[in-house]
Write a structure and sequence with these properties.
It is a single chain. The chain folds into 2 domains: 223 residues, Four Helix Bundle (Hemerythrin (Met), subunit A); 276 residues, Methyl-accepting chemotaxis protein (Helix Hairpins), CATH 1.10.287.950. Helices cover 81% and strands 0% of the residues. It is built from 6 helices and no strands. The longest helix is centred in the middle third of the chain and has 142 residues. It starts with 7 loop residues before the first helix and ends in a 73-residue tail after the last helix.
């Protein structure tokens, strides 16, 4: 993780943690080293003291044995000699144990050499003592005494001297070790001091780095704020840091960009306002000319509207008469339609009666057919009866003949009735078509009457609308005069707007943007373009002088123009923006 991107709180906690860990490690090192030195020194000092004590005891026992040996050699009392011999043996055994104890210790090379030297002297002393004891035992007291004086005493002195040398050696070793422990403790103190110095130096360096990591961003932010306060918005801001100061620089960068964008927009707005004020002045000039033209056109329009009012009134009267005629025609058509409907109903009744007659003829035809069948059956039965049924057969033949003629007549009547029914159906259809035609005529007449009524109503509305237009024209004439006053106010407002645009441009020129000069140059404002004098139309006098409608109630006087500072700037877009006047 980059140190520049770490938060300030993280940096501070990290510094505190490093200090605490460093001090903890240093204290632990010093404590462990002191404890180890203390334990080693105590163990070594105890061993050295033990060797010194053993060596001193060894020397004392040796001197005691030497005195006992001399006393045993010089005495003539057997009891003393015996007791001295036992003491010498016991002391010798103790000396051997002391020697073994010392040799079992962790000895240095010098100590081992001294022990070898002591062992040699002891062996020599023991050999001489044994010679003296043998001479004494042999009864040669003088020889034994001579051995003691000439050999034993020097050997004992040399032996004791080596023991004293061992004691001195152990004392020197103890003193040397004490000095080494003191040096080790001093070295530990020096190491701890050096570590403390290193830690303090590291803390100081870390504090300097931390202070610089805090001071430098604050200095950059202060310089950036000072440049922004002086109007210099062209600074390049480093926003690569990830800590709180990086967030501060990002916020300052956003503020700088927003101010630069706002100043750029204000500069553009001042240019637009200056251009708009120039065009407003030009528009005011054009508006003045057009106001005069509008006044002339309104007079011509008023005369034409009066003539149009008379014509529309005459058209409305004609439309009302046509509406009355259409209403009468609609009434007559409705009556004709009613008559046709009655004829259609009558033809329907005739058609129904014809169908009933046709049904009756059909019944008669059926009866004749059945009678013919019965006569045929009767003739067959008469033929079977022979002579007895001959008369009956004649009667049956006559009946059959009558039935045939009845059937023939019924067929002819049915044919005539069918022809009549067909003609009645055709007449009913024609009458129905005539009724439909009359209904369509009635509907058409009604629609014509409705259209004429609508035309009449529209003509009335047109008459009313033209009257309102006449009133509006009178109001337009009055508004034209008011527009003249507004033109003067607009000219004053445009001039004030130009002055304010110049002041605003000078105020914004203080700011310095990236890619722009140090001092913003104020753009020159173009003067109002010369307007082209439009031809004034000739005023045509009205042909007639009809009564002019009374003008509407005069509008209340317009409120005075707002101060130029609060006047809303008009859009610059040519002459079309002034058509609302």
């Amino acid at each position: 993780m980059n140190f520049r991107n770490m938060h300030v709180a993280t940096k501070l906690w990290l510094a505190v943690a490093v200090i605490i860990i460093s001090l903890t490690v240093l204290i632990a090192f010093a404590a462990l080293r002191s404890a180890r030195l203390q334990a080693e020194s105590e163990s070594t000092v105890r061993a050295l003291n033990s060797r010194v004590n053993l060596a001193s005891s060894w020397a004392g026992l040796t001197e005691a044995n030497a005195a006992r040996t001399v006393a045993m050699i010089l005495t003539f009392d057997p009891g003393v000699e015996s007791r001295m011999g036992e003491d010498i043996k016991a002391t010798t055994a103790r000396i051997s144990k002391v020697q073994q104890s010392i040799e079992a210790m962790d000895l240095s090379a010098e100590e081992k050499a001294q022990m070898d030297k002591i062992a040699n002297h002891r062996k020599s002393m023991i050999d001489v003592r044994n010679q003296a004891q043998k001479a004494k035992a042999a009864g040669d007291s003088e020889g034994a005494q001579k051995i003691v004086n000439e050999q034993y005493t020097p050997a004992v002195n040399a032996y004791v001297a080596t023991l004293h040398e061992l004691v001195a050696l152990e004392e020197r070793a103890e003193k040397s070790y004490t000095e080494e422990v003191a040096l080790a403790r001093g070295l530990t103190i020096k190491i701890a001091g050096i570590a403390v110095a290193v830690i303090l130096a590291a803390i100081l360096a870390g504090a300097m780095v931390l202070i610089r990591s805090i001071r430098e961003p604050l200095r950059e932010a202060n310089e950036l704020a000072s440049r922004i306060a002086q109007g210099d918005l062209s600074a390049r801001i480093d926003t690569s840091r990830g800590d709180e100061f990086g967030d501060l620089m990002k916020s300052l960068a956003r503020m700088n960009d927003s101010l630069a964008q706002m100043v750029q927009q204000v500069r553009q707005s001042t240019d637009s306002i200056a251009t708009a004020s120039a065009e407003i002045a030009t528009g005011n000039h054009d508006l003045s000319v057009r106001t005069e033209q509008t006044s002339s056109n309104l007079q011509s329009t008023a005369s034409a509207m009066e003539e149009l009012t008379s014509t529309v009134s005459h058209s409305a009267d004609n439309a009302r008469q046509a509406s009355q005629l259409a209403s009468s025609a609609s009434t007559v058509a409705q009556k004709g339609g009613t008559v046709v409907q009655e004829v259609v109903a009558t033809m329907g009744e005739i058609n129904a009666s014809s169908k009933k007659i046709s049904d009756i003829i059909g019944v008669i035809d059926g009866i004749a057919f059945q009678t013919n069948i019965l006569a045929l059956n009767a003739a067959v039965e008469a033929a079977r009866a022979g002579e007895q049924g001959r008369g009956f057969a004649v009667v049956a033949g006559e009946v059959r003949s009558l039935a045939g003629r009845s059937a023939e007549a019924a067929k002819e009547i049915k044919a005539l009735i069918n022809t009549s029914v067909q003609k009645v159906d055709s007449g009913a259809r024609l009458v129905g078509q005539a009724g439909d035609t009359m209904n369509e005529i009635v509907q058409s007449v009604r629609r014509v009457a409705d259209v004429i009524s609508e035309i009449t109503a529209a003509a009335g509305e047109q008459s009313t609308g033209i009257a309102q237009v006449n009133t509006s024209i009178a109001n337009l004439d009055q508004m034209t005069q008011q527009n003249a006053a507004l033109v003067e106010q607009s000219a004053a407002a445009a001039q004030s707007m130009r002055e304010q645009a110049d002041q605003l441009a000078q105020a914004v020129a203080v700011f310095k943007l990236a890619g722009h000069a140090t001092a913003a140059t104020q753009r020159s404002v173009q003067g109002p373009r010369p307007s082209v004098a439009l031809p004034r139309p000739a005023v045509t006098a009205p042909r007639a002088a009809p009564a002019r409608l009374a003008p509407a109630k005069a509008h209340a006087a317009l409120p005075p123009a707002m101060p130029a500072a609060s006047a809303a700037p008009a859009k610059a877009g040519g002459d079309q923006e002034w058509e609302t006047f």
